[in-house]
Automatic annotation (TrEMBL), chains A, B:
Principal EC category: transferase
Binding site for substrate: Y16, G43, K110, Y133, N188, N293, R389
Family annotation (HAMAP family): DapL_aminotrans_1
Residue positions where N6-(pyridoxal phosphate)lysine is found in the record: K250
Gene behind the chain: dapL
Subunit text: Homodimer.
Source species: Methanobacterium congolense
Known catalytic reactions: (2S,6S)-2,6-diaminopimelate + 2-oxoglutarate = (S)-2,3,4,5-tetrahydrodipicolinate + L-glutamate + H2O + H(+)
InterPro entries cross-referenced by the UniProt entry: Aminotransferase_I/II_large, DapL/ALD1, PyrdxlP-dep_Trfase, PyrdxlP-dep_Trfase_major, PyrdxlP-dep_Trfase_small
Swiss-Prot/TrEMBL GO biological process terms: lysine biosynthetic process via diaminopimelate, diaminopimelate-aminotransferase pathway
One Pfam assignment: Aminotran_1_2
Function: Involved in the synthesis of meso-diaminopimelate (m-DAP or DL-DAP), required for both lysine and peptidoglycan biosynthesis. Catalyzes the direct conversion of tetrahydrodipicolinate to LL-diaminopimelate.
UniProt name for this protein: LL-diaminopimelate aminotransferase
Record bears the keyword Zinc: no
PANTHER family membership: AMINOTRANSFERASE (PTHR43144)
Length: 411, 411
């Protein structure tokens, strides 16, 4: 006898997308020390925390330093003062009613979208759009819901739903039944969005097939068009089949501060092997109370300040700044004759690489000739081959400069 | 077909220990509104964050508010500036050498001790001491490493190692082979410690049986005796068989601020089904990079300040304050003729309930007659029946007052 590893970990094909990007960028910089490289690859924000957030954050740290106001363990589910704001200002304003115990504060949408699969059985069939945020896939592979990766870059047993220019990036309903469906809209990496009508088809599918939709809405703050839902609960019947993930990372610059939340309505149910239905809300509560210990108190106070009048004004300004960049990227690349997608309801622009060029070839071209770094689409899944992601999270100056350089290339 | 729940969750017998305590306390307070209840139940600190920590914390929040110093995504494993301090000031000083990539910063020892089982196969046998911190048990039950709970309060398939006055709270090596061994020393809840010689027996056992020790050292800062190891790596050969968990919660008051770390030496290995050995360090790294997104930057800066000269002086003072309370509790209860354990290398005092009294009967007695709240030992496992936990985390005044009230009881 000897202690055994979780062998599912051995199935993970480490594409280490961002590590490979960093390696190529470092090598290029070393060989070309004078090159002024502009990075538009990783989806990380650059505008500092709103002043209203900083002020509240520091005041809460001060509370932690005084006997009378010191806070020890908080509720694993998060403080009521933050949950109330979320319910009122993110949901009630859109006509969505939530109870306080349906909202779970956490330290990140990555953590929550990675952990959520734990409350489901191992014998569920998983569906993801392709290209896809790798966490949805890999967290399930590690848990044992797949076989090995095939030659085509897909894990055996998982259902990949292609989203490419061919279908206008609108995922088609699966032909074989699936149990858990990960949808991220506005989408990372393609930057495209789903209309209410399109999302309603998925809700209907889930209701008919006793499936559950895991809806990642981390980018909802970037939505500019009216017919794009900010929350899946804007769709009738979604409360019974959908769990929603939100984050303060992309709307308020919390990527390094860490706060997010997950909504698990009490009506969402899954089944045991006898066919009996169980509400998922107490299961997620059990998962979080056993394996998580709540978000830092000052961080929750900081997140609350995002909803203040001043905070809201500041984050609107930041988002407008990024979306101005997105527009510049869209217009510049379109003018060059490239096919581009996204960037209207999202800070990501998804570029079709020029005829006959792979994602990595285009990456190398932009790096070497324009000193601009983006992300090869193939890194997000097989259907990402032939595409390239550019983010709007740089400064206006750098964005303009990058586009100027790219426009001079002969593509 | 329909989406399935993780049925292992149904096995959890919700003892909801602290919820039941809260329920009884609330009811008593309602019926006796004038009663001045002193709480010595939950293991939560009460002394505010050290001034050095608050100062550094706030300065880091300021950095997050300025373009030039703003921090976005950090490394999932934590910042080097904090890891370096840990290695130098927690380990090198005790002659323990660690590489930077052997230390993983996290948001809590509860999270890490709950998540660590994910990198191991489901077919491992789990051993815990009894009484035990419930997270070790429940995280394994939820993952599927046990059967249902027996009538005696033990999950089928798990190995419980009794630690009671009968064996001087020294766990005996298991008679049947086990794969994963959870040890928490200084112990929660008993407050007892293991000497180097005793811990060395476990390291030897693990080496001989290809087992792994998951060593929770969250309370090491409370050690006062020389022959008690602060780290399991003080034991020769432990680097090959032990993972260690540490936290800033109990030494520096971070229960509401959230920062901890886990040490996974590269030599620690487990086996696949072909008998091939795999280093656990890259497996934990994979788990953390896929399902976690790093600790808040300002919190990591705050944790670094714990290691400053000022920070160290402040935390020593707080610990001395709590340990003075522990001494008062020990002496008072001893004088009453009660058998007490722990409280020398730990902020917990473990009390044998008076002859013929169960843990909950003693709880009700102290609540109703002395208006003092503690924790029934049976809540931590079947071998905790007939014991009671009192914590030293209240104020000196309250601690004295509580002891005075208890000493007047006819026990």
């Amino acid at each position: 006898m000897a202690v055994k590893i979780n062998e599912n970990y051995m199935l993970i094909k480490s594409n280490y997308l961002f590590a490979e990007i960093a390696r190529r960028v470092d090598r290029f910089q070393e060989e070309n020390p004078e090159a002024d490289i502009i990075k538009m690859g990783i989806g990380d924000v650059t505008i500092p925390l709103p002043k209203a957030v900083v002020k509240a954050f520091k005041a809460a740290v001060d509370e932690m330093g005084e006997k009378e106001t010191f806070m020890g363990y908080g509720p694993e589910q998060g403080y009521s003062f933050l949950i109330k704001e979320i319910i009122e200002k993110d949901y009630a304003v859109r006509g969505i009613k939530l109870d306080e115990d349906e909202v779970f504060i956490s330290d990140g949408a990555k953590c929550d979208t990675g952990n959520i699969q734990e409350i489901f059985g191992l014998d569920n069939t998983i569906a993801v759009t392709d290209p896809v945020y790798p966490v949805y896939v890999e967290s399930n592979v590690m848990a044992g819901r797949s076989g090995a990766m095939d030659e085509d870059g897909k894990y055996d047993g998982m259902v990949y739903i292609p989203c490419t220019a061919d279908n206008d990036f609108t995922p088609e309903l699966p032909e074989t039944p699936v149990d858990l469906i990960y949808l991220c809209y506005p989408n990372n990496p393609t930057g495209t969005a789903l209309t209410k009508d399109e999302l309603a088809k998925w809700v209907e599918y889930a209701r008919e097939n006793n499936s559950i939709i895991l809806f990642d809405a981390a980018y909802e703050a970037y939505i500019t068009e009216d017919n794009i839902p900010h929350s899946i609960y804007e769709i009738e019947g979604a409360r019974e089949v959908a769990i929603e993930f939100r984050s303060f990372s992309k709307n308020a610059g919390f990527t390094g501060t860490r706060c997010a939340f997950t909504v698990v309505p009490k009506e969402v149910k899954a089944y045991d092997s006898e066919g009996e239905a169980h509400s998922l809300n107490p299961l997620w509560n059990r998962r979080q109370t056993t394996k998580f210990n709540g978000v830092s108190y000052p961080v929750q106070v900081a997140a609350k300040a995002v909803y203040s009048e001043e905070g809201q004004a500041e984050i609107k300004e930041s988002i407008a700044y990024y979306m101005k960049n997105a527009e510049i990227i869209r217009e510049s690349l379109k003018e060059m004759g490239l096919s581009i997608y996204g960037g209207v309801n999202s800070p990501y622009i998804w570029v079709k690489t020029p005829e006959g060029m792979t994602s990595w070839e285009f990456f190398d071209l932009l790096l070497s000739k324009a000193n601009v770094v983006g992300t090869p689409g193939v890194g997000f899944g097989p259907s990402g081959e032939g595409y390239f992601r550019i983010t709007a999270f740089n400064t206006l100056e750098n964005t303009k400069e990058a586009m100027e350089r790219i426009s001079k290339l002969e593509i």
